[in-house]
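Box S1 | Example of a co-folding query
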Amino acid sequence: MIKIVTIIGARPQIIKAAALSRAIKNHFSDKITEIIVHTGQHYDKNMSQVFFEELGIPEPNYNLNAGSNSHGQQTAQMITGIEKILLEINPNYIILYGDTNSTLAGAIAASKIHIPIVHIEAGLRSFNKAMPEEINRIMCDHTSTLLFTPTLSGLNNLTSEGFNKNNKTPYNADNPGIFHCGDIMYDNSLYFKTISQKSNTIISKYNLKKDNFVLSTIHRNNNTDNPIRLNAIFNSLNKIAQQNSINIIIPLHPRTSKLLNTNLNKELLTLIKSNNHIKIIEPVSFLDMLALENNCKLIITDSGGVQKEAYYFEKPSIILRSETEWVEIVEQGAAIIADANEEKIIDSYNRLTSKKKQSFPLLFGDGKAAEFICETMLATQKTYS
Ligand code: UD1
Ligand code: UDP
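Box S1 (continued) | Returned holo structure for uridine-diphosphate-N-acetylglucosamine
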């Protein structure tokens, strides 16, 4: 039996962790004991608790209640809490997802006391160190013992940074094992797709018609905190809705909701609020989100997870960033990077919606990343030097 400590904190991590917890429950319950630590980075019911209920994730064993704060204060509080728990439990592995401050806190706490780190969603790079996430993911990759890449570009990024694909056990932070396993989020989308079609409430609630509305999410700090960028994004959404008479539904992250009044110019805010085609709503549950993604015509987003889910559901997407870590979907022509450039966002909408045919070859594995990760942890855990 091995013991693992899973660190979650932000919405996408809670969702990703569901796939691993499900795999453990269904296939490895006699071999792996999971202890879940919620850092409390996200805490509103619709940013956290809703996912535990809906995705059947076990209640966290610990909650650090870190909440919102500056990067330094938030991360420091998490490091202290995680270190204490790791010392108490002494697990075989700590499991870290993605690139948030909760990920970084786990990496710092564990690496200093030599708890082997498993990084799920390793190797992604935006090559933009102004992004807090880029710092977090590089730090986590470079302290990890087992790294699991969701895409081939992730694997290539690691090898070009000096990680060796042919490393032999025993693995440790100086001799890490890198494994390409596909995307754990894809596991969830496949698993919950049919369930979401049956049990979502959102499509009828907002009277949405299949392939006849746009879904948008905006939360990236350089979009929300920069009034020029935020105004350009909302201007383009307003124009797309008007010019095409199409509904745009925007489940808005609390970060963005809190900044609309201060960072959007007053006239635009009034236009948005009076535009019957635009519906700004609270963040939705995962099953509702999958239903929106599955039924919409196109997705406009700055979210990493939502970009990928657009591709899983074979929907074109417009990326509100100047680059993406998920380069494969852009290379396929399924997504366009439009940054926060009003003209480019509108032009991308027109290009993507007038395109006759778009293929969506499988790029993110076989939906069994979680099982692969569990098997690999078990196969390598006795081999520490
Ligand atoms: C974090 C991650 C980001 C990820 C996103 C997923 C970092 C540096 N960023 O960004 O990579 O894409 O989560 O959603 O870790 N807030 C609430 N209620 C909540 C949570 C947040 O109101 O439950 C508000 C607070 O005003 C807070 C702000 O959102 O200050 C930002 O939250 P924070 O967790 O610091 O960063 P995110 O922007 O959510
Ligand atoms: N998501 C959700 N409800 C929402 C918005 C997003 O369930 O209102 C899900 C979405 O389906 C995806 C994940 O949250 O699985 C993406 O998280 P987010 O956009 O917050 O962060 P990122 O992926 O950019 O780090």
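The radius of gyration is 21 Å. The CA atoms of residues 314 and 330 lie 13 Å apart.
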